[in-house]
Specification:
By secondary structure, this protein is of the alpha/beta class. The chain contains seven helices and 16 strands. Helix 4 (160-172) links the parallel strand 9 and strand 10 (180-184).
Length: 300
């Protein structure tokens, strides 16, 4: 179930966790011993997670893993060969193609699922064909959610393979005719050029990494570069638009993201919702895998 996030009086909202209710192909099975055990459709994945410090709650389930990632040796397990050919899972009515990557990822961040109802509401509550800029857009889950809801989306990522992956997901979902621009570019450089071109967006979504390199080779460090990027975003987002900022950087909790976003946009912190990005199961572990802060300009 993917429940709507409900703000409390201080605008703190808990992201609806991504649970397996038979309609989606994901399950957090267990976590502990600095690792997490998850089911993505037909594959059970064991991979490192330093935040899982307690002992596993369901030790008998760990042998089920057919994909294991080791930081030294990479992917091992009986399912590796089949998984490298790719497989698909369903999330919120979208099919997403997965495959193991050299970084230990599979192409889907399940903790983002709690953001999908809010994004759909933002699009559906506004005029048709609104424009949304999606920065650090990865394999396209949020892009496709926005496009399916009726937005025209500019999908920007610095990695060519990620863009190709996202375009394949659009094909998989029959969304190739939707107005999506696929751009390999540096997030700050593209946003700055859009500002000079006097381009404006109704919404901006961004999920910056801790560090990386843009398409031009420009280094990205979240500590130094996030605030300048958000200030540029402020100048190209509509006054009644929306913004969603998510992050997976250690030390950037929900309150930190809210303060950063509020300072960059120049609005009181109280108008922003914020909370953890979470995956959990009802009878077991709960993983905080990042944080979010979001702004709905209709409320300011």
């Amino acid at each position: 179930m993917l429940p709507e996030a409900q703000p409390s009086d201080n605008r703190r909202a808990a992201a609806g966790p991504f649970r397996d209710d038979g309609a989606v192909d994901y399950e957090l099975i267990d976590a502990g011993g600095a690792a997490r055990l998850e089911r993505f459709g037909e594959h059970v994945v064991d991979r490192p997670y330093p935040g899982a410090l307690d002992a596993p709650q369901f030790p008998d389930r760990w042998p089920d893993a057919d994909l294991r990632f080791d930081r030294e040796t990479g992917w091992i397990g009986t399912g590796v060969d089949a998984a490298r050919e790719g497989w698909s899972v369903e999330i919120d009515g979208l099919r997403m193609e997965l495959r193991p990557t050299d970084a230990g990822q599979v192409g889907l961040y399940p903790e983002h699922a709690g953001m999908l109802p809010w994004l759909r509401e933002q699009v559906e509550a506004r005029e048709p064909n609104l424009s949304v800029l999606h920065l650090f857009a990865s394999t396209g889950l949020l892009t496709l959610t926005l496009a399916r809801a009726g937005a025209a989306v500019v999908h920007v990522d610095s990695a060519r393979p990620a863009i190709a992956w996202a375009r394949q997901n659009a094909i998989l979902n029959g969304l190739t005719e939707r107005p999506i621009r696929w751009l390999q570019d540096d997030a700050f450089g593209f946003t700055s050029r859009e500002l000079r071109r006097n381009r404006r967006y109704d919404g901006i979504v961004l999920d910056p990494p801790s560090y990386g390199h843009g398409g031009s080779g420009r280094a990205w460090r979240v500590e130094a570069d996030l605030v300048p990027l958000l200030r540029a975003c402020r100048r190209i987002v509509a006054s009644d638009g929306f913004m969603l900022l998510t992050a997976h950087t250690e030390g950037y909790g929900p309150g930190d993201l809210r303060s950063t976003l509020a300072g960059a946009l120049g609005h009181p912190a109280g108008v922003f919702e914020h909370g953890p990005l979470v995956t959990e199961r009802d009878d077991g572990p709960r993983l905080k895998l990042g944080a979010f802060a979001r702004w709905d300009g209709r409320s300011t």
